[in-house]
Amino acid sequence: MAAPSKIIVTGAAQGIGRAVALRLSGPGVQIAVWDTKAGGVEETAELCRKAGAHARHWQVDVGAEDQVEAAVAEFVDAWGAVEGLVANAGIFPRSRALDMPLAEWEQVLRVNLTGTFLCARAAARTMKATGRGAIVTVASGRGLQGAANGAHYAATKAGIIGLTKSLAADWAGFGIRVNCLIPGIADTAQPRVEMSDEQLYAVGDRIPLGRIGQPEDMAGMVAFLLGDDAAYITGQSVAVNGGAIMIP
């Protein structure tokens, strides 16, 4: 089975999503980058084109079924069945559980968990027709550790790990592999919601490999999980965190 060359990356306007899109781009690759941030996702698409890929951008709210289905249909009309999906889009507001508005809880679940499901389902329906495909979901170390001021975020990321295993079991017979990336703390917008740059980089001193992660570290694992070398891997969740899992 050849590595996927018709790919969708969600949450691609910045951070890990952008790094993944660029890592996967090259001659012969047709890549769609999705985000709600128009300027950022346009810039990512242009960077992908500079790397040699045929790239298009869509503004998509992954938690809206109609938008997801329409964007996948446009992809198929333009390029054919999806071969690879990276379901990276997510939001990360901060609220203490006692004070958390229900609307905020429901929004985070809709985007992070329901959005991952909707994107995976829409892509898998096209993959089933060809008998092949690879999907990578994106969870978080918070899904394993919890988050004192992000119960909704942690719950969705733990849910994505369970969802990944379930979809892998459901779709293995169709030749579709589904695996999960679990990033540790990384140099992205997410931790900066509650940390200064100084605080963020100081975390690296406590990590066995001596630094926080970079988006490119995560992109390398995604490329592996989508590619030929992972052809016999499905239903797995891989933590990329510099050894932080070993910290008591």
Please give the oligomerization state of what you see: single chain
**Ranges with pLDDT <50 over ≥5 residues?**
none
What global shape is seen?
A: globular
- In the CATH hierarchy, the architecture is 3-Layer(aba) Sandwich
CATH superfamily: NAD(P)-binding Rossmann-like Domain
Give the mean pLDDT. Answer: 95
- Integer-rounded radius of gyration: 17 Å
Total of DSSP H or I helical runs spanning 4+ residues: 8
End-to-end Cα distance: 41 Å
Number of domains: 1
The biggest sheet, with number of strands, parallel, antiparallel or mixed sense and barrel status, is: 7 strands, parallel
Question: According to CATH, what is the class?
Answer: Alpha Beta
Q: Let me know the number of strands.
A: 7
Range of strand content: 15-25%
Element string (H = helix, E = strand): EHEHEHEHEHHEHHE
**CATH topology category name:** Rossmann fold
